Every structure is written in structure tokens, then in C-alpha cells.
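Quick one, probably user error.
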């Protein structure tokens, strides 16, 4: 099946924009009064639920897995009632970032149909969701999502949308519809080049080479200095060259193939094609030039492998049988050595260490997520054979899944350690409860709160009596009360003493002292009475708190064993569930590892089979040369003019 080209360098920023558009729930003040709202953006809202703010804290820290975990838990517990719609959009964006596209798609399809989502945001969301489903291989869903866009997008996104829709149609072999969509369409220069290339290849697949040549030539001759467009230009020339070669037009094919850069990714295949074009034109000497150039390149390249047969084939057509035999023998030896290396690589892959060595290079990067891309490869013998499969879409997606499984495994391991800590906490709490239980029972048996309340009531009654009888001495200071008591004693003693001049003087002095003290007590009486009543109110608050604590202590005395027992049961049930999840995860990791290993081994098997085919052809051709040499008649004397020697390898090339 033909796989259209989608410029991946534009894809990741678009997904980041999607998360920003859908999860636009931020901290900030409401829109200023009178400000005109942007119809293509969601309104800025205030965080009104504390738990939703906790989710956003982890989201803005880049801890998307923790944010999603909390978001699901808080939504289930009803802790974010003021942010239900925003929470669902954010949840969809987080599912999307983590690669759970079905979960994300279900939420988007439900929420994006609502009237509260602006049209511009809804259109971009459907477009990006279509991009994601396209990359994941859900072509029918991708087409539905793209067609859900109502009205034109901004120019750049509209160009991408049309291009993406054409790619979806071509992946479904609906080439006529794709050609009708792209023919005559004009977008940005970048997207026009990609569109022309895809349309040209689609027309080639549809058997319309004359129409395809116009589009592929336009891309193949475009003036540009950008690396991605230079690679696209090489690919267009390569596709056109081989299409013309298969159509029996080697001269025109050679013109297209010679436009491919020698330093580009497709140079090896272009050199091979130029050689075959010269071969079809009957110019085997010219064919040797690009084919011998390939001899110095990596044997892992299929074009280089084919050149190992093409070079001796050209020598044989030039009647240089000795040189042809040498090159065939060299090819057989090279194919044998490479086959042994492939067998060793397969053995290493079967050992199950390939993925661990690949992911070990990425330990410092993001630990999960659909946006993660493999950047570096380990220096392992088998990796040199796996560049095509490692760069392939199936392996990349499978590797993302395996990495996510590894992240989940580390997360479950961390949670399992937390369960051990929870168990220790529960044991410690039960031990502390058992140690404090006798003291709590003794305290509850004393009924201290009621005794304190009784003493408080007595104090209130006493204060009421003091107020009613205006007992000014009762609210004096300790020194004043002592002085008042002493005056009372002296007054009683003088009352019993005989009336004399001396006792009369003492009675006068007592009257003056008692009058002064009475004046002081009377002046302070109302203030002291207010303070005592205020202290009584403060005492009431303390007594209420004491009573509440007493009641809580009594409830805790009966509920604590039940609470810890229920928590222990939940802990045991969650621990058992965690064990089951870890077992399922280990099984999934093993299956995913085996799946990726099978992909790699299948690629190596195809390389080995190709080498075996080439080796068989080389041995057969070598045997044919030897048979012809053995059955040739005795050579006649050399002619006066000796035939021109067969062309040797160019200077600096391998023999």
C-alpha cells in the first residue's frame, strides 16, 4: 500500500496547540468589563474548586499522569462541581497526550458538539483529532473527524487539513478522489510541494504516468534550501525515475534520477537506478560508474546489495568474464559474512535485551506519553541492521506502548512501596490505640466535663448574688479583700470594747479607713463585674470545646477500631488488586516485547532472505561463467587488433 507523506516536523507543535486550546482553564481574573470576547477562544475562568487547582498545579508542572489520576479521582468523588466541563476537556487532552486516543476521542465527540465551545476551537480540535487518528491508523475515524470541520480554518491549518484528507483517501486506495481533491488546489509552498508529490505518486499507482510526471517533475525541480524539501525533491525524482524505468523509458528516467543529490538519503537507490537506465540503453560501461560507486557503501543497504550483482553482470555483458567472476566471488563471500552477522543479531534480539538497551539511552527524557520520540540508539551489533524497522511507524508506535508499560510498571512499584508504608502506619496506629486505651477509659470514667460544668454553674450563681446584693468587697483584689476582712475584725472588736476617749479615737480612724476602702471597692465594682462576666463567657467557650473533645474521645473510643479495620480491609483489597495489575502489566510487557522483537526479526529475516536470493543468483551466474570457460574451444591466435580491455574500477574505489 502507498503511504502518503505527511510532514512530521509540523505535527508535534500542532498537538501541543491542541492541548493549549482544549485545556484552557487557567488561573486569572475574569475578562475586564466591556472587553470583547474572542469567538475562537474559550473564556478564561477562575479556579473555584480547590481540588481542581491541585489538578492544574500538577498539569502545569508537566506531571500529566498525576494530574489525570487526581482528575479522575476528584471527579468521581464530586470534588470539582464548578469545573465539570473544563475537567472533561482537560481530561480528554491528557488522555490524548498519554496516547489513549479512544478515551480522548469519546470525550471530544461528546463535548465538542456542545454549544458552549466556540466554533474556531471546535474546528481546530476536530482537525487535530483527525491528525492523531491518521497517525494511529484509524483512517475511517480520521476522515470523519476531518469532515466535521465546519467552515475554513486559518490558511495554514486549512492547507494541512486538505492535505491530510487527501492522504487519508490515498491510504484507502481512493486515488481518484485524492487526485480530484488535490488537482488545482493551491496552498503554502511547503504544502503545495507535499500535495503535488502525493498526487503524482497517486497517479502513478493509478497507471497515469503521463499526468503524474508533470507533478513529480515540478517537485523534483523546485528551488529550495530547506532540508525537508530537499529530501522531498530527491524522493520525487526517485519515484519518477523508477516509474519511467519500469515504463521502458531509460533516457528520461536517467534525467530524473541524476537530479537526486549524492549526499542525500536516497542517493544509493538513485545510483542503482541510473546504472539500470544505462544498462537498458546498452551502455554497460556507463552503468559501471554508479554501480561501482555503490561498492564503497554500507552493505546493509538493499541498493548496495543489488550492486554486488549488477557490477559483475555488467562485466559479463562486456565479456570481461574474469572480472565478473571475481566480483561474483566477492559478493558470495560478503553475503555469507553478512548472513552470519544477521544470525547473531537475531540471537541477541531473542534474548530480550534489545528494548531495554534502546530505552536506557532515553532515561533522562520524558518517561511516558504519545509525544515521545526515539532520538538516540544504543551501540549494539543488532541495531545497525534495524534502522529501517526502528524508523518505521509500527515499531515507533509499539515502542511508545512498551515505554508507557515500563512507566506504569515503575508507578505500580512505587505504589506498592506506599502500600507497605500504609501497612506500617496502620500497625503503628493500632499499637498507639492499645497503649492509650486504658488512660482514655479512666478519663472517660471520671466524667470530668460534667464536674467542670457544675463548677461553672456555681460560679455563675455566685456572681449573680454578688450583683444582686452589690457585694463590692467580693470583687476586690486579694489585698483589698484581706484589708476588708481585717477591718471587719477590728470593727467587731471595737464594738465589744468599752466607750472611752481612746476607743472613740480608734473608731473614728476605722471609719475613715473603711470609708476610703469602700470608695475604692465601689469605684471598681462595675468594671470588675463586667470582667468577671466576660471571663465567664470565655469559660463557656472553653467548656464547649472541652465537651466536644470529650464527645469526640468517646466516639473515637468506639469508632477507631472500626475505622482502622475498614481501612485495613481497603488496604488489603487494593493491595490484591495492585498485585493483579502488576501481573497483567508484566504479561502485557512480555507480549509487547515479543511483538517488537518479532518485527525486528521479521525485518532481519527479510534481509537474510534477500541476501540468500542474491547469493543464489551470484552462485548461479558464477557457475555459468565457469561452465562457459570450461566448454570454450582452444583460443585462436590473437587478432592483430586486440579487444579493448574491460573497464576497471575508478580510482579510489574498492576492487
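Nope, works fine. Designed sequence:
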Amino acid at each position: 500500500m502507498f503511504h502518503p507523506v505527511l510532514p512530521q516536523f509540523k505535527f508535534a507543535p500542532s498537538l501541543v496547540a491542541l492541548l493549549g486550546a482544549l485545556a484552557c482553564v487557567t488561573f486569572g481574573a475574569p475578562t475586564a468589563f466591556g472587553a470583547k470576547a474572542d469567538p475562537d477562544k474559550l473564556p478564561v475562568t477562575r479556579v473555584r474548586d480547590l481540588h481542581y487547582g491541585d489538578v492544574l498545579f500538577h498539569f502545569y508542572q508537566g506531571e500529566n499522569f498525576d494530574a489525570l489520576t487526581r482528575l479522575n479521582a476528584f471527579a468521581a468523588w464530586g470534588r470539582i462541581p464548578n469545573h465539570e466541563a473544563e475537567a472533561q476537556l482537560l481530561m480528554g487532552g491528557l488522555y490524548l497526550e498519554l496516547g489513549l486516543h479512544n478515551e480522548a476521542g469519546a470525550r471530544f465527540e461528546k463535548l465538542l458538539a456542545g454549544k458552549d465551545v466556540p466554533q474556531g476551537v471546535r474546528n481546530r480540535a476536530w482537525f487535530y483529532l483527525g491528525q492523531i487518528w491518521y497517525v494511529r491508523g484509524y483512517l475511517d475515524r480520521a476522515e470523519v473527524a476531518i469532515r466535521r470541520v465546519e467552515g475554513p480554518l486559518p490558511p495554514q491549518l486549512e492547507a494541512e487539513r486538505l492535505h491530510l484528507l487527501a492522504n487519508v483517501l490515498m491510504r484507502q486506495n481512493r486515488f481518484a478522489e485524492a487526485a480530484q481533491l488535490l488537482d488545482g488546489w493551491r496552498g503554502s509552498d511547503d504544502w503545495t510541494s507535499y500535495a503535488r508529490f502525493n498526487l503524482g505518486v497517486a497517479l502513478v499507482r493509478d497507471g497515469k504516468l503521463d499526468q503524474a510526471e508533470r507533478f513529480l517533475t515540478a517537485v523534483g525541480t523546485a528551488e529550495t534550501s530547506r532540508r525537508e524539501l530537499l529530501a522531498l525533491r530527491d524522493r520525487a525524482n526517485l519515484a519518477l525515475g523508477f516509474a519511467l524505468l519500469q515504463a521502458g523509458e531509460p533516457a528520461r528516467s536517467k534525467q530524473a534520477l541524476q537530479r537526486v543529490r549524492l549526499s542525500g538519503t536516497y542517493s544509493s537507490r538513485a545510483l542503482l537506478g541510473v546504472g539500470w537506465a544505462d544498462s537498458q540503453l546498452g551502455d554497460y560501461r556507463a552503468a559501471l560508474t554508479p554501480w561501482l560507486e555503490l561498492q564503497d557503501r554500507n552493505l546493509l543497504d538493499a541498493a548496495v546489495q543489488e550492486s554486488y550483482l549488477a557490477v559483475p553482470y555488467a562485466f559479463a555483458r562486456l565479456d570481461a568474464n574474469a572480472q565478473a567472476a571475481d566480483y561474483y566471488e566477492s559478493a558470495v563471500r560478503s553475503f555469507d559474512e553478512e548472513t552470519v552477522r544477521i544470525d547473531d543479531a537475531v540471537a541477541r534480539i531473542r534474548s530480550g535485551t534489545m528494548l531495554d538497551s534502546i530505552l536506557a539511552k532515553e532515561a533522562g527524557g520524558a518517561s511516558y506519553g504519545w509525544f515521545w520520540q526515539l532520538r538516540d540508539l544504543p551501540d549494539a551489533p543488532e541495531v545497525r541492521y534495524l534502522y529501517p524497522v526502528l524508523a518505521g511507524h509500527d515499531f515507533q508506535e509499539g515502542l511508545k506502548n512498551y515505554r508507557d508499560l515500563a512507566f506504569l510498571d515503575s508507578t505500580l512499584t512505587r505504589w506498592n512501596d506506599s502500600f507497605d508504608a500504609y501497612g506500617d502506619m496502620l500497625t503503628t496506629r493500632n499499637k498507639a490505640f492499645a497503649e492509650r486505651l486504658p488512660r482514655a477509659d479512666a478519663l472517660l470514667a471520671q466524667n470530668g466535663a460534667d464536674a467542670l460544668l457544675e463548677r461553672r454553674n456555681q460560679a455563675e450563681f455566685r456572681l449573680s448574688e454578688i450583683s444582686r446584693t452589690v457585694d463590692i468587697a467580693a470583687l476586690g483584689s486579694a489585698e483589698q479583700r484581706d484589708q476588708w476582712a481585717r477591718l471587719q475584725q477590728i470593727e467587731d472588736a471595737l464594738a465589744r470594747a468599752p466607750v472611752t476617749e481612746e476607743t472613740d479615737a480608734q473608731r473614728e480612724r476605722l471609719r475613715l479607713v473603711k470609708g476610703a476602702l469602700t470608695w475604692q471597692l465601689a469605684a471598681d465594682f462595675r468594671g470588675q463585674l463586667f470582667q468577671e462576666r466576660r471571663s465567664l463567657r470565655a469559660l463557656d467557650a472553653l467548656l464547649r470545646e472541652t465537651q466536644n473533645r470529650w464527645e469526640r474521645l468517646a466516639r473515637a473510643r468506639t469508632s477507631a477500631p472500626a475505622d482502622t479495620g475498614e481501612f485495613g480491609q481497603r488496604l488489603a483489597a487494593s493491595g490484591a488488586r495492585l498485585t493483579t495489575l502488576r501481573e497483567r502489566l508484566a504479561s502485557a510487557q512480555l507480549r509487547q516485547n515479543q511483538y517488537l522483537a518479532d518485527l525486528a526479526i521479521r525485518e532481519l529475516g527479510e534481509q537474510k532472505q534477500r541476501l540468500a536470493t542474491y547469493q543464489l543468483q551470484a552462485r548461479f551466474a558464477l557457475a555459468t561463467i565457469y561452465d562457459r570457460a570450461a566448454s570454450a574451444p582452444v583460443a585462436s591466435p590473437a587478432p592483430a587488433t586486440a579487444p579493448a580491455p574491460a573497464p576497471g574500477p575508478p580510482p579510489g574505489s574498492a576492487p
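The mean pLDDT is 77.
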